[in-house]
Design brief:
166 residues, single chain, five-stranded parallel beta sheet, Rossmann fold
Length: 166
């Protein structure tokens, strides 16, 4: 199984649970999972992390992503065949304003959709009942497309020794 991480996993981990300055073991663990091919980050995640704060020393998370770019970046070309299906799940016909708001999430979903039997999205988002495309959350769109999706605590439990015991 390959796990595609939403940007919010890295941002939330760094801001609240595992700051880079004090939780190096967590970040080393992510690197190990990336090297093993267990987790992947679409290009849009890297771009989202780097927006506006790539000046050296200003954003440790953006610097970390840059240092490990080759380990995690899943090229968008892998997901292109799935993009029309994913965009239709958000809104049909797609409005420009909606596309601007959901494009990164849609790219993450498209990666997992392209490998629907062997991929799962990991996000902190929770499902919602939104009708408007720009308000739909990743788990809701995944459910509509039969794409596997889980929250990060479930992923951590699954990857832990306790989660692997039967």
């Amino acid at each position: 199984m390959t796990y595609y991480f939403d940007t919010n996993i890295l941002v939330t981990a760094h801001r609240y649970d595992f700051p880079l300055a004090t939780s190096q073991e967590f970040w080393d663990w992510l690197v190990e999972l990336g090297e093993a091919g267990t987790i992947r980050f679409p290009e849009v995640v890297f771009e989202e992390l780097g927006r506006g704060k790539m000046d050296e020393g200003k954003d440790p998370l953006a610097e970390w992503a840059t240092q490990h770019r080759d380990l995690f970046i899943a090229p968008m070309v892998e997901a292109l065949p799935s993009m029309p299906v994913v965009l239709d799940a958000y809104e049909k016909p797609m409005q420009t304003a909606t596309l601007e708001k959901i494009q990164n999430d849609a790219c993450v979903i498209a990666h997992a959709h392209a490998l629907i039997q062997t991929a799962t999205i990991v996000s902190y988002e929770t499902p919602n009942q939104a009708i408007a495309g720009h308000k739909k959350k990743i788990p809701s769109v995944c459910a509509a497309l039969n794409v596997n999706c889980m929250r990060f605590p479930q992923f951590m439990w699954m990857m832990s020794d306790l989660g692997n015991k039967k």
